[in-house]
Amino acid sequence: MKIYTKNGDQGDTQLIGKKVKKTHDRVEAYGTVDELNSSIGLAMTFLHKSNHEDMLKDLTRIQHELFDLGGDLANVSKKQDWAVKKEYIDVLEKRIDNYWEEAPPIHTFILPGGEQGAAQLHVCRTIARRAERLVVKITDQEETPPHAIAYLNRLSDYFFAAARAVNARAGTEDILYERGKDVFK
Fold it and tell me: What residues form the membrane-spanning segments (predicted)?
């Protein structure tokens, strides 16, 4: 089997249920979810199993969930058995709470950075936010998976908490935004 099909050579692609231009909002959304998945893969290369085994398990699970989300976003057929479940969000919330407790309290925004793994998780956070905005844009026009927006919103929170935990585990202090006001009360 060859990897190339030549089906997209004219700028079209196939959603589940119809053919669309590659510039279609759904293609942009699931393409951004795919970009996020790749960015997570890169983040994982910076996290050592000895210090971050729990996080590596989380991130692998999240990568599978993002494939589920991509499939959901590509589905415009009448048969919509959504793969992304509320339970995905529930698990993220528990993990966010755990990681949040590991890092020292903050009251202002922080600058993205610190350890390489933390910095890459901040990149993941921003890509998740972009994916969320794209899904909201689609939702304004047509039906989308019911838990997609909340999942992406919570996922960006997860990356923030995880990045802070990576820095805390390494003894690297987050750099506080100097002109910031009290936002985390």
Answer: none
CB 164 within 8 A of CB 50: no
Per-residue pLDDT tens, the chain, 185 aa: give them.
Answer: 777 667 666 677 666 777 766 767 898 999 999 999 999 999 999 999 999 999 999 999 999 999 999 999 998 887 778 999 999 999 999 999 999 999 999 988 999 999 999 999 999 999 999 999 999 999 988 888 999 999 999 999 999 999 999 999 999 999 999 886 777 76
- What pTM was estimated for this model as a whole? 0.92
Torsion of CA 87, 90, 95, 100, to 10 degrees: 160
Task: State the architecture of 19-76+83-176 in CATH terms.
Answer: Up-down Bundle (1.20)
Residues 6+ apart with CB under 8 A from 84: 65, 68, 69, 72, 145, 147, 148, 151
Burial of 7 (0-12, 13-18, 19+ CB in 10 A): exposed
How far is residue 151's CA from residue 143's CA, in Å, rounded to a whole number? 16
Cβ partners under 8 Å of residue 160, min gap 6 = 121, 122, 125
Report the distance separating Cα 50 and Cα 145, nearest Å: 37
